[in-house]
Amino acid sequence: MDKKVRHYLQVADLDRQSLLGLIERAIELKEMRKKGIDYMPATGKVVGMLFEKASTRTRISFEAAMYQLGGSVSFMAKRDLQLDRGEPLADTARVLARYLDCLVVRTYGQHIVEELAKWSDIPVINGLTDAHHPCQILSDIMTVIEHKGSDLASLKVAWVGDGNNMAHSWIQAASRMGFPLYLACPAGYYPDEEILAKARAEASYPIEVTEDPVEAVRDADVINTDVWASMGQEDEALERKKVFEPYQLNEDLLKHAKADCIVLHCLPAHKGEEITEEVLEGPKSVVWDQAENKMHIHKAVLEWAMNLRD
């Protein structure tokens, strides 16, 4: 990776200070927005958004973030580009770098964002891959800080469900930012062993995986979940529904957590599957703050990546 270009492809790309700095900056930008303060350091800049996967929150929040920073957005679906006809990623990256100031990519394989970053002279930001969701985790932790305070090490964070890209980003965040993390996943759906081992090797607090959701959420301050079948896994949906049924985030499971715990879900939610409507719409849910915070985090990430701050 070219050190002169600020790519953000996974949480482990940045150190603790940089990650916390992005969150602190997002909180500042959110406050500025609430006060009606115009801040447009990206005037004349263009961010490209190359999306292979459907998106509501990531796309709109990145677009709104860039517009609020004073810049412009060029949205690109893969089917609209020569990539769909076999143009190499290296060629696409070098061409787009001549037109754009930053590139946000939402795709399947992590190797795609890594290849684009390798050949790009502009920042490449991972807007989601099957392996990582590094911007989402920042908005999640921003939400935790807003509701539970900045002493992350004092909080027990639980993850219930699939050992997917969000689980991987939580694992890396726990390691880099310093907080205990307990994941409950069914057998055969654990997080990637290599990602888990690397995170544990540098972690100061426990990162544990269990098949028992009660054990994971016991006395938890923060509980996370996600859909049981992610994009690209639709053909597994029925099988996964059977496997993950005991991992539903419902009122019975919440009884084992702290009374003042908060519930996160990166959305979209399948109510009645991974989370009940009662919990999603209940007093412990902070998912709407979490969704809003994506926009503020994306402003901070874009500002950092394009080096817009004086």
What's the arrangement of secondary structure elements?
Blueprint: H1 16-34, E1 46-51, H2 57-68, E2 72-77, H3 89-99, E3 102-106, H4 110-119, E4 124-128, H5 134-148, E5 157-160, H6 165-177, E6 181-184, H7 193-202, E7 207-210, H8 213-217, E8 222-225, H9 237-244, H10 251-254, E9 262-265, H11 277-280, H12 287-305
Parallel strand pairs: 1-2, 1-3, 3-4, 5-6, 5-8, 6-7, 8-9
Low-confidence residue ranges: none
Instruction: Provide mean pLDDT, rounded.
Output: 96
User: Could you tell me the radius of gyration in angstroms?
Assistant: 19 Å
Classification by helices and strands: alpha/beta
Number of domains: 2
How do the helices and strands follow one another from N- to C-terminus?
A: HEHEHEHEHEHEHEHEHHEHH
**Largest beta-sheet details:** 5 strands, parallel
Q: Enter the CATH topology name of the largest domain.
A: Rossmann fold
Counted by DSSP, the helix tally is 12
Task: Report the portion of residues in β strands.
Answer: 5-15%
The neighbouring-strand order within the major sheet is 7-6-5-8-9
Distance between the termini: 24 Å
For the record, what is the CATH homologous superfamily label of the largest domain?
A: Aspartate/ornithine carbamoyltransferase
Shape by Cα distribution: globular
- CATH architecture descriptor text of the largest domain: 3-Layer(aba) Sandwich
